[in-house]
Amino acid sequence: MTESCLARRLGNFLDLSDNERAFIESMENTPRQMKKGEVLVSKGAKTNKLYVVKWGWSIVSAREVTGRRAILRTYLPGEVIGLAEIGSPVAPHDIFMSTDGAVCPFPRASLGRIYEQAPRLAALLTAISSAEQVILRELLLAVGRMPAEDRLILFLLTLLDRLSVAGAETSSRFHVPLSQSEIGDALCLTSVYVSRLFTKLRREGQIELEDRHIRLQDRAGLEERVGYAPLATRIDTSWFSKARVRPD
């Protein structure tokens, strides 16, 4: 049986027990195939489900008053859609697929069962959700304060770390299926400007770019340049309870 992508992701931070792995895999037993551009969640709809991204990328988007689209975040394989919105009875934004993919829906009520029966998993999902909020703050700060080139570098470094946690990438070369327009909407830049930035970084030898595969030539140097902290890979688990899954 193929390992659960969520279990693989969580396994970066905890030595999961067999019972915990089985619990996680039960959340992914009804995969739903999705097409690029297909809407997963519509703004204003009731939110009674969460989704594990099995493969593919999805995007959270909103429209500004001017009508321009803003991309608020991406979801990668092994990440859980809906945790950030768990306190809202309706969806605050649209969520759609940026690529073909598959998601595994599970009832929102299942979260209560996780807290009751698998407290370590509940603690880890809470900690990861917290780290994701900090990452979004850093990107928000970058959009408001950093030069455009540094914004793009920070964005790429963040994606690479998140992909490494998902087990999708193990080097400084990684696949980014987002269009330049989507990257621009995430960084408050036009697609033309994003294209110019990629051309500049490639010409300067800071990245290689081929068929939407990007290689960071001097990852350490780029991290130092933008003051990057790998928040996606640093989760404090010291406060978690011991491994156990209570029976139903």
UniProtKB/TrEMBL annotation:
SMART domains in the record: HTH_CRP (SM00419)
Keywords, in A-Z order: DNA-binding, Transcription, Transcription regulation
One matching Pfam family: HTH_Crp_2
GO cellular component, one term: cytosol
Residue ranges of domain Cyclic nucleotide-binding in the record: 12-82
UniProt KW Transcription keyword: yes
Top-level taxon in the UniProt lineage: Bacteria
One GO MF term attached to the UniProt entry: DNA-binding transcription factor activity
CDD domains: CAP_ED
Keyword DNA-binding among record annotations: yes
Annotated ranges, domain HTH crp-type: 146-220
Protein name: Nitrogen fixation regulation protein FixK
Organism name: Palleronia abyssalis
Lineage, top ranks: Bacteria, Pseudomonadati, Pseudomonadota, Alphaproteobacteria, Rhodobacterales
Gene behind this protein: fixK_3
